[in-house]
Structure formats: C-alpha cells, structure tokens
C-alpha cells in the first residue's frame, strides 16, 4: 500500500492546469479556493479546446465479489481471479462476511483480513506484476485494490472510507466500504457493499443504498472543499452482496430494460424567484429540494454559498447545499440540492422553539450578483431530542402541547435545574420511554437478535409520530424497529441518562459494583429512575437469552455507549470502562 | 472502461495573453455606489435607466445584490461607477448591511407616493452611519416624480430632510428619465471630491490609472484574514 505517495504531488500539479470532463465534474474542479477572472478565462479556453489535448484510452478492471460466510480460504482463488486471457489493468476484489465473530463485530479486528488478502495476492494473473494500492475493511466487508505495476504512477489521490448501516445505522455488520482514486485524469470510485438480507426486505436494502450514497463521504485534501460523495466521480464501480433478487425475469430481458432506462431530468427553476419551504420537518426525516444554476453568460462562472457574518458556516447545521461551490462553463448547468435533516444535535433547540427552520442562503457568483435564497419550514417537535426532565413534566404527547409550554419548561429547567418547574408531581420516567420499553417487554422478550438487527427507517418514522402525537396501546412496526427507536431515543437525549458531569467518576469507579451503584443513586431523580428502569428491563431480556441470543457483554456494549457518553471523543480504553460500569447492573440487581 | 488522459502543457501561453488583454482598464478610477431604500421604491428601475436607458414597468423584487457598471467623465477623469442594487425587503436587511462597508457613495431612495418609504429613510440613514465607511457620500432621492396624482411626500419634505442630513436631494423619475443622469453624476462628483486628495497623492506616485476599489480590495483581504469566520467575499 505504499505505491502512491511519491508521484501524487507531480500529478496534482498537472491537475491544477487541467480542466474536466463531465458536467457534474465541472462544478468540482475548482481546486483553488480563490479564482480570478484570468484563471476562469484560461479554464474556459482549455475546456473549449479539450479535444486537442485530451485523448481517451481503454483499460480493463477486474471486479469480483465473494461472500465467504466467515470461512478461511481453503483453495486457490486462481480459477476465479486468473480467468482472463490478458492480465487486467486493475483488480478490485470485494468480500463480505469475512469474519462472523463477536470480536470482529465489536472491535473491528480480525485475522481473516490477512488470510484472504494473501489468497488474493497469490492468485492474480501471472503475466503481470501488481501493486496493492489500498485495502479497506469494515467488520466483514473488505475491498482490495490492485493495479498493474506500469499504471501505478498514474494513480493518485487514493482515499478509502466506510459506512455502517447495521443497527442504529452504525454497526458494521452491514454497510459499505469504498476506495476512490484518480487514474490519469478520470476520477473513479469503487464501492463494495453488503445490503440487508431476506427477499422481503427490499425496503431496507433501498434504505441501506440511500444511506451509503449520502453518508459515505471522502474528505478532500483541501479542507475548504466539500467532501466528495460516491456519485461525484467520472466512474462508479459498485460491487457486493446486494441481496436483491429478481424472480420473474430472465437475465437478458433485465439487461434490455436497463439499457432502455430513461433517467429523470431535473426540473429547471428560474433563479430569480428561488425560495424553499420545507413542510412538516421531523426529527431524522430527510427532505430535499433541488434547483439548477445555469450559466447563460459569455464567460465561465464560479459560484459559492458564502458565510453570513457572525455565523460559522454558510447555512444552519440542519441544512446543506450540495455542491456548496463550483465552476460552471458558459452554457453549462449545475444542479444544487438543498437538504434538511434534523439530527440529535439540532433537535433540542428546534423542539423547544428556541430556533426555527429559517435561514437565508447567499449564493455568490464570482464577479457578479449575490442571490438570497430564503429557506423556511415548520418543525414538528418531538420527544426525540427533548430532555428527560422536560418529558417527565409533560403529561401530554409533545405535539399536543402548545410549543410555548415546552419552551417554558426548557428555559425553567436551564435556570433552576431539577427543582424547578411545576408544582405538580412529575412522571417517574418519560411516558415515551415507558411505551417503548413496555412494548418490547410484552412483545419482544424472546425476539431473536433483538437490539442486534436494525429496524426500518419507515417504521421508525411511524413510531416517532405515534409517540409524539398520542398515547396508543401499542406501537406500530416490528420489534426490531421499536428496539432501534428506543436506542435512538437514548442517543438523542440532550443530556445523557448518566449526565456528563457524572461521567468522570463513573470511569474512575468502574471496577467497583458498589461504587457504581452509589453514583447512580446520586443522579437527578428522573435520570436515576430511567437508568434503573432500563437496567431492570435488560436483566429481564437476559433471562431469555436462549431465545433472544443476547448476552450481558453485547448489551453492555450497546447500552453503555448510549447511557454513559462523553463530550469528548472516547478511546477504546474509556469505552471498555463504560462497558464495565454498566455491566455491573446487568448481572445483579440493586442491592 | 475509458480513462481520460490529458496533456495541458501547450495551450497555456496563448490563453494567458488573451486574459491580460481583456483585463486592460479603460478608465482612470473606479467607485462603488450603493442603492438603498424600501422594497418597491424603484432602485432597480433607476439603475436600469441610468446604465441601459431602459424602463421595465412591472415590479420584480430584487432578491439579492446585483451591480451594473457605467463610465462617466468628470473633469476629464474617466470614472467607472460600479452601482450596487440591493434587496429592499426587511427580511434581507441583516445580510445587505454587510455590503455597505465597501461603498464610497450611497443613494437613499424613497418613493414620493409612499409616506412610509419616506419615513423609513431615517432607519436607512442610521444603518448607513453604523455600517458604511465614515467618508461615505450620501444623496437623497425621491423617485416616481411622474406620479403626481399619487404623491404623498411633498418636495419640501424631501428638501428639508436632505438639509437636515446635509445631503443633496433629487426628485427623479425612472419612467420619464427625469434627473437620472443628474443624480448619479452628482453622487459620483461628490465621491470624487471626497477622495480627491488621496487620488492626487496616488497620481503623483503612479501616473498610471488607479483603482480605488482595488486598493480597497487589499484592505478587504486583510479584514478577511483578521476575521476567520468570514469566508468568501462581500464585494
């Protein structure tokens, strides 16, 4: 994996002068932060005469994918990898389920990586020499990229990224790994993904695919440049165990249909009247609108969303514009997508009404006008991202309350702490939490792989709406979806169940069960209740481990990361201490 | 699959020469002027009339900031004016204020058929005091002077206000092209006069053309370096 560093600088210097090829790329080739008119003109001339200094050349890439189901390599891979007459110019080999052990799952560490890499290395085409350029692995999903020795000097900007789509959208038993690189002047991205299994789970597979496309981002060398997503490459090569099955059609008719496919063209909007309203924005529910910037002028143009004064970024954290800057040749267009996504860090202030879905983007055209693009929307408050204390003081569903009530609760809580708020006795624990745990207790205590399989995004949306608008007898969705909704609820709390201020002493005392119990008894009352309630529920689950296949280690891993959070990044040692802390409460009840 | 292979060494020389030709300046000095005032008072129409001698009767709100250029000859000096048109709507004002600090001259525009727009001039003027450079030149403009039947603001009121602020005053009509060139030229003259000393000093050292706003640009860059949070530019 050492072959790319020496020549990448030369190549990059070349690229600064070069122009680009596809329309999508024209928006990205601005590798220099500040461009002047002269550069623009040069770029424009270069684009016009691209044919004079550009030529196309064919190369062959061997793509292979193999779900090895946790097995070690037993026989030579040569019949597979050495099946072409001529040696391929590159090899991209993907594996799935490399290692099914718990160690691989939780600590992302496996001896199988070496075993299979060696097996591949031994079986490449014997008529050429290959260099291993990059290897990337996420739990059992691995991608190896080899290039023929004589091409190595034309490979540059090699980057690898991974994204997990397992439970809570993070665990790496499902997801994708990807490698991007430049080969001469073409940008190429290779993706190896393992999508959700089972024939009826196509919805989850679609969700996984969308998640991979949006969440897998390569950082650029220039930190002012936005990260590059998979689809922003000249060529995308996607391999993997996709688990899709087409049962009613034969291969040839499927291929024919693919050829005929007409891609939806984006609707053009005159820039002058741009404004966007996002209706009923909800927690973790992605919404997007697109518009087209067309350069109908005589010179190439650079655009950028610029930062307003006293604000850290060009837009609010719940909003993104993609791409946020770019270059448009005369007559060309760029599609810009505005996305709204409220996550755990932006939800608290929106819930309480301290902030609203309201922003004005300033789209700056280099040496030209600035467009103001107002973005508005209405946010539907949620129990997701609302504090335990506030929820204990809300007897009604969050959306039944006037927002003013919630806002007052939050501000009283900020100034006075636990002792504040109403004269009425608060609930022991948030009713939303009770509804989810009670649902699981009644329906999922023996559910196989509970808390280990992800739920469906669409079902999460139903569960969230249900919790926020009513007090139903039972929740919609599968057990796995309810379980994930519970984990997301804990993850979204503005103050974790074990408040940040208690975190250091939890680490210090993690080895002593009695000390740990003592710390918990000192938590604010409603936090203590939630902690004990959850621990008691999990102990019930463990009594049924024969059916649900849980053990205390798995539960400690999952729940410690949600209940004991640090405001800084935790290292592995710290994580293990939080697991040790919580583990005491899983093996014995409070004394 | 195909890969793109490029050789870019040859063409660069020619295009650079072309670029520098285009860049050659055909003026002596460049000023930035800014149009301010409530939404609908006719800022965009004034600008279109002045630079292109056109009038578009339908009102399309400016949502953003745009500029047009026109060269005037004052005392034998070729003055290139870069005139910035701003969105008048209130919701955009926190953003448009950021453009004030780079202006050398400002038009405060109201609509003689709108008492409200006239009253708001006070607000606009105090924003200018707060955000524009100290040396900025101002001029008061009462637009739509052709709409005599709908007049709500008497000429005397305009004169009085202008006097209070120490500004020159014009009633204009973008529709009939009344007082347009006069008002733009007057502001340009004032800016020229205000910067005369600096210009003469500079002229002695560089007998070449000079660009006030280019000098400012360097200043602006420094500003930006001091202020890490601000990315991009507000020119």
TrEMBL record, chain A:
GO cellular component, one term: early endosome membrane
Record keywords, A-Z: Cytoplasmic vesicle, Endosome
Localization of this protein: Cytoplasmic vesicle, Phagosome membrane; Early endosome membrane
EC class: hydrolase
PROSITE patterns per UniProt: RHOGAP (PS50238)
Organism: Cynoglossus semilaevis
Pfam families: Exo_endo_phos2, OCRL-like_ASH, RhoGAP
Boundaries of every Rho-GAP domain copy: 414-591
Protein name, UniProt field: phosphoinositide 5-phosphatase
Gene3D superfamilies the record matches: Endonuclease/exonuclease/phosphatase, Immunoglobulins, Rho GTPase activation protein
A GO MF label: inositol-1,4,5-trisphosphate 5-phosphatase activity
Main location: membrane
UniProt-listed GO biological process terms: cilium assembly; Kupffer's vesicle development; melanosome transport; phosphatidylinositol dephosphorylation; pronephric duct morphogenesis; response to epinephrine; signal transduction
Top-rank taxon: Eukaryota
Enzyme Commission (EC) number: 3.1.3.36
InterPro entries in UniProt: Endo/exonu/phosph_ase_sf, Ig-like_fold, IP5, IPPc, OCRL-1_2_ASH, Rho_GTPase_activation_prot, RhoGAP_dom, RhoGAP_OCRL1
Cross-referenced SUPFAM superfamilies: DNase I-like, GTPase activation domain, GAP
UniProtKB/TrEMBL annotation, chain B:
Catalytic activity: GTP + H2O = GDP + phosphate + H(+)
Family annotation (Pfam families): Ras
Membrane association type: Lipid-anchor
PROSITE patterns (UniProt xref): RAB, RAS, RHO
Cross-referenced Gene3D superfamilies: P-loop containing nucleotide triphosphate hydrolases
UniProt keyword annotations, A-Z: Cell membrane, GTP-binding, Hydrolase, Lipoprotein, Magnesium, Membrane, Metal-binding, Methylation, Nucleotide-binding, Prenylation, Protein transport, Transport
GO molecular function: G protein activity; GTP binding; metal ion binding
Function, as annotated: The small GTPases Rab are key regulators of intracellular membrane trafficking, from the formation of transport vesicles to their fusion with membranes. Rabs cycle between an inactive GDP-bound form and an active GTP-bound form that is able to recruit to membranes different sets of downstream effectors directly responsible for vesicle formation, movement, tethering and fusion. RAB15 may act in concert with RAB3A in regulating aspects of synaptic vesicle membrane flow within the nerve terminal.
Assembly mode: The GTP bound form of RAB15 interacts with REP15. Interacts (GTP-bound form) with MICAL1, MICAL3, MICALCL, EHBP1 and EHBP1L1.
Record protein name field: Ras-related protein Rab-15
């Amino acid at each position: 994996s050492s072959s790319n560093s020496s020549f990448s600088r030369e190549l990059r210097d070349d690229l600064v002068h070069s122009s680009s090829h596809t329309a999508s790329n024209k928006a990205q080739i601005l590798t220099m932060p500040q461009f002047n008119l002269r550069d623009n003109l040069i770029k424009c001339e270069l684009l016009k005469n691209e044919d004079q200094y550009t030529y196309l050349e064919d190369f062959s890439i061997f793509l292979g994918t193999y779900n090895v189901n946790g097995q070690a390599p037993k026989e030579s891979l040569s019949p597979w990898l050495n099946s072409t007459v001529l040696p391929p110019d590159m090899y991209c080999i993907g594996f799935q389920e490399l290692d099914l052990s718990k160690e691989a799952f939780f600590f992302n560490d496996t001896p199988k990586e070496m075993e299979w890499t060696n097996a591949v290395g031994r079986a490449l085409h014997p008529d050429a020499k290959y260099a291993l350029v990059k290897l990337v692995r996420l739990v059992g999903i691995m991608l190896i990229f080899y290039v023929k020795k004589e091409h190595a000097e034309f490979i540059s900007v090699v980057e690898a990224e991974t994204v997990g789509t397992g439970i809570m959208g993070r665990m790496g038993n499902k997801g994708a790994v990807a490698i991007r690189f430049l080969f001469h002047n073409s940008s190429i991205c290779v993706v190896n993904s393992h999508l959700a299994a089972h024939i009826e789970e196509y919805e989850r597979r679609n969700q996984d695919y969308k998640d991979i496309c949006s969440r897998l981002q390569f950082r650029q060398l220039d930190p002012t440049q936005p990260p590059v997503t998979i689809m922003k490459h000249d060529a995308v090569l996607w391999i993997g165990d996709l688990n899709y099955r087409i049962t009613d059609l034969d291969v040839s008719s499927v291929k024919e249909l693919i050829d005929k496919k007409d891609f939806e063209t984006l609707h053009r909007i005159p820039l002058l009247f741009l404004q966007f309203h996002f209706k009923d924005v909800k927690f973790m529910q992605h919404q997007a609108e697109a518009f087209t910037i067309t350069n109908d002028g005589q010179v190439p143009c650079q655009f950028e969303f610029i930062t307003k004064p006293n604000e850290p970024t060009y837009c609010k954290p719940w909003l993104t514009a993609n791409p946020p800057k770019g270059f448009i040749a005369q007559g060309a267009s760029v599609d810009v997508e505005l996305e709204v996504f409220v996550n755990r860090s932006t939800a608290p202030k929106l819930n309480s009404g301290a902030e609203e879905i309201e922003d004005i983007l300033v789209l700056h055209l280099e040496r030209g006008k600035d467009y103001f693009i107002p973005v508005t929307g209405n946010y539907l408050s949620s129990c997701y991202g609302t504090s335990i204390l506030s929820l204990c003081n809300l007897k009604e569903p969050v959306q039944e309350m006037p927002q003013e009530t919630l806002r007052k609760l939050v501000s009283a809580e900020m100034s006075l702490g636990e002792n504040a708020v109403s004269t009425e006795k608060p609930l022991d624990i948030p009713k939303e939490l009770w509804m989810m745990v009670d649902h699981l207790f009644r329906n999922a205590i023996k559910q196989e792989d509970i808390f280990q399989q992800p739920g469906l995004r669409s079902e999460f949306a139903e569960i969230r709406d249900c919790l926020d608008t009513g007090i139903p007898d039972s929740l919609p969705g599968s057990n796995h979806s309810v379980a994930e909704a519970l984990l997301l609820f804990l993850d979204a709390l503005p103050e974790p169940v074990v408040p940040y201020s208690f975190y250091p002493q939890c680490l210090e005392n993690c080895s002593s069960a009695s000390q740990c119990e003592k710390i918990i008894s000192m938590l604010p009352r409603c936090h203590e209740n939630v902690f004990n309630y959850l621990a008691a529920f999990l102990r019930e689950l463990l009594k049924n481990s024969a059916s649900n296949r849980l053990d205390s280690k798995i539960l400690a891993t999952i729940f410690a990361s949600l209940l004991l959070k640090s405001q800084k990044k935790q290292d592995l040692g710290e994580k293990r201490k939080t697991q040790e802390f919580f583990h005491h409460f899983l093996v014995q009840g409070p004394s | 699959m195909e890969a793109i292979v490029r050789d870019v060494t040859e063409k660069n020389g020619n295009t650079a020469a072309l670029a520098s030709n285009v860049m050659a300046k055909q003026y002596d000095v460049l000023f930035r002027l800014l149009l301010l005032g409530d939404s609908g008072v006719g800022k965009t129409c004034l600008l279109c009339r002045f630079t292109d001698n056109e009038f578009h009767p339908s009102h399309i709100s400016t949502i953003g900031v745009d500029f047009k250029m026109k060269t005037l000859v004052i005392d034998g000096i070729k003055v290139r004016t870069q005139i910035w048109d701003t969105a008048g709507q209130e919701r955009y004002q926190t953003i448009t204020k950021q453009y004030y600090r780079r202006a050398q001259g400002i038009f405060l525009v109201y609509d003689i058929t709108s008492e409200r727009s006239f009253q708001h001039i006070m607000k606009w003027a105090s924003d200018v005091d707060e955000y524009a450079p100290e040396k900025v030149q101002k001029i008061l403009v009462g637009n739509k002077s052709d709409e005599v039947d709908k007049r709500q603001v008497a000429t005397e009121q305009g004169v009085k206000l202008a006097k209070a602020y120490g500004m020159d005053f014009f009633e204009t009509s973008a529709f009939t092209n009344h007082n347009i060139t006069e008002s733009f030229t007057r502001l340009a003259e004032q800016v020229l006069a205000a910067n005369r000393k600096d210009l003469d000093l500079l002229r002695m050292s560089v007998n070449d053309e000079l660009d006030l706003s280019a000098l400012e640009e360097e200043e602006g860059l420094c500003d930006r370096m001091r202020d890490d949070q601000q990315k991009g530019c507000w020119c």
